[in-house]
Specification:
The protein is an all-alpha fold and about 450 residues long. It has 26 helices and no strands. The N and C termini lie far apart (about 75 Å).
């Protein structure tokens, strides 16, 4: 920690520079085109970067990691009125935050980031690499860092390249897959997955067979990012790995590849003893729209000990849309976990060729839980069972606007005279959107 603090002070005071950094003025602005075509915002200068890194070095590791995760993940501020801020909050904070989200161009700031890539603190090192990846650092500098004698620096440089999706140093990253240290090799595989250049696929296919489990894991994940069924054969054997993280990662990658030949293997993974592997297999089968998985998914929905597996099964059955899943989904509405109930209620509305609403779904429209009530009402409205006209009419008095709107739309699609009294009352709803929908629904009913 102290070494980093001294490094920060010396760099900011001494005006350090780095050879090959993009030539910009010390506080020059960078202009990038956003969706609106307007100018971008200047990135942080060396003083801001130094202050930021020093603060990270002296904070709690959990807080440091949280901040590192959020770098670049927030919207830039544009509220001079400072609405939603406390009255005694200091001014200027948003501008400083924005600068750390912008593209850093200050050569001294870039030099500081480069010099921090080898620090002992892994969180500070990651934050510096993330900022460097989003900066104007040159490809030549990144290539040089990838060849550093220090494994830490090589790993950090690979992370920066992945963050910045620097396609121009793809070859250097591919070369790094054979690094003698697992950290840089695995990070290079991750970076190539972030860059998503199909030209890297052969190198990653080779790295799937590396001696390091970490490198194999990262390479399998990276191949999944290409969403190419041709790479399934390279990843499929990893479903039998002894490491559950490897098996889960392989299942996730296979789901993204959309190969028609992996359905049976993924169905087999539904019986894995590890919860995370079963979750990944369920999601992968849903992505593949694997019809042979319907029955096993129905079984897991009702019997798996992990509620998250059950929730994923409900969502997957909704994606697969098989009408035969109506009964198990209706039974899941009685599950002790309310989130399983919500997922089941929503999935029922996605099924094909369902014309009769189960009694459990009708009951769920009056549930105390708002999300369950909302999902159940929307599904009931989609089914359009004439026997549920009164159940939907009862929802016109619900406190939730979305529920009332779903009930109005469902009644309108039924086009029955029994819905007219409720729809007429809905013309006086306190929400304009519901009133408009009621008028449209009455028009359909009276055609």
């Amino acid at each position: 920690m102290r070494a980093l603090h001294l490094l920060v002070l010396s760099l900011t005071a001494g005006g350090a520079t780095a050879v090959g950094l993009a030539p910009h003025g010390a506080r020059g602005t960078v202009h990038t085109s956003g969706e609106g075509g307007g100018p971008g915002r200047a990135g942080a200068d060396s003083a801001r970067v130094a202050t930021f890194l020093a603060a990270l070095a002296h904070t709690d590791p959990v807080i440091c990691d949280l901040i590192g995760d959020q770098l670049g993940n927030f919207w830039m501020g544009d509220d001079p009125a400072r609405l939603g801020r406390f009255s005694d909050a200091p001014t200027g904070i948003q501008g400083a935050k924005d600068s750390l989200a912008g593209t850093i161009t200050d050569p001294r700031a870039l030099a500081l980031l480069v010099a921090t890539l080898g620090t002992d603190n892994p969180c500070v090192r990651r934050a510096a690499a993330k900022l460097l990846g989003r900066s104007a650092v040159s490809a030549a500098v990144l290539r040089g860092l990838l060849d550093s004698p220090s494994p830490r620096i090589r790993e950090s440089a690979a992370f920066a390249a992945g963050v910045g999706e620097r396609r121009e140093i793809r070859a250097a990253l591919e070369h790094r897959l054979a690094d003698t240290a697992a950290g840089p090799a695995a990070m290079a595989a991750w970076a190539l997955g972030e860059i998503q250049d199909p030209a890297s696929a052969p190198a990653l296919q080779g790295a799937v067979h590396a001696s390091s489990p970490r490198v194999r894991l990262a390479s399998a994940w990276a191949l999944g990012q290409f969403e190419d069924a041709g790479f399934a054969k390279d990843v499929l054997p990893l479903l039998r790995d002894t490491d559950p993280v490897m098996r889960a990662t392989a299942a996730e990658a296979l789901g993204r590849m959309k190969s028609p030949r992996v359905g049976a293997a993924l169905v087999g993974a539904l019986t894995d003893r590890n919860d995370a592997v079963r979750r990944a297999a369920v999601s992968a089968l849903a992505d593949l729209r694997e019809r042979s998985a319907v029955a096993p998914l129905e079984g897991l929905l009702l019997n798996d000990p992990d509620p998250e597996v059950q929730r994923k099964c409900a969502r997957a059955l909704g994606d697969l849309r098989a009408s035969r899943s109506l009964d198990p989904l209706a039974r899941a509405l009685g599950d002790p976990d309310v989130e399983v109930q919500r997922a089941a209620a929503n999935a029922i509305g996605e099924l094909d060729e369902v014309t009769k609403a189960p009694a459990a779904l009708v009951r769920a429209t009056t549930a105390p839980d708002l999300d369950l009530r909302r999902n159940a009402t929307k599904s009931l409205a989609r089914i359009g069972d004439l026997a549920t006209v009164q159940a939907l009419a009862d929802r016109l008095g619900d406190e939730d606007k979305d529920i009332r709107l779903a009930a109005v739309e469902g009644l309108g699609e039924m086009k029955v005279a029994a819905a007219i009294p409720g729809l007429t009352r809905a013309l006086n709803d306190r929400e304009p959107e519901v009133r408009r929908a009621a008028a449209e629904a009455l028009g359909k009913t009276q055609e």
